[in-house]
Design a protein that fits this description.
Length: 147
């Protein structure tokens, strides 16, 4: 089971990012058959980021289509775990919800945010900073597919 951070999804949409774009896209292809989770706040993050460049209707359709393929966990379900993790890692609040989702679902967390990856590890969540740990993340996904 996998939790994808918003950064990976956004990077997969931006070819100008070069290597980040390639790694994010390859990863998304690899996780198609995996159970993917995210906190429901993913929708807000995507709407905010993508809405800066594209029309509301286009962004809404994209976000709704994308998140229909992801198991979204509500903030209410995550709150107690997120609250405890916040004391442990003292990170950004939205990141804590992704870390809490991974913890609650016993998933690995994949992100293009070094701070989030490090904070997840502090919370004893298996996490991969995709930019530097691409091969490790891909190998781990293969292991999950075989089990």
């Amino acid at each position: 089971m996998i939790v994808l951070d918003t950064s990976v999804i956004v990077d997969s949409l931006l070819p100008r990012l070069g290597e980040r774009y390639k790694k994010a896209n390859e990863l998304l292809k690899k996780v198609k058959d995996q159970r993917v989770y995210a906190p429901k706040i993913l929708k807000v993050e995507l709407a905010t980021i993508l809405g800066r460049k594209k029309s509301t209707n286009l962004v809404r359709k994209f976000v709704d289509d994308l998140t229909s393929e992801i198991n979204l966990i509500s903030e209410g379900d995550l709150f107690d775990t997120a609250y405890e993790i916040a004391f442990l890692v003292k990170g950004r609040a939205v990141d804590i919800y992704f870390i809490a989702t991974a913890k609650m679902t016993n998933s690995i967390l994949i992100t293009n945010d070094r701070v989030m990856a490090n904070n997840a590890k502090k919370a004893e969540v298996e996490a991969y900073y995709l930019i530097e740990e691409f091969n490790k993340a891909i190998n781990r996904i293969r292991e999950l597919q075989q089990s």
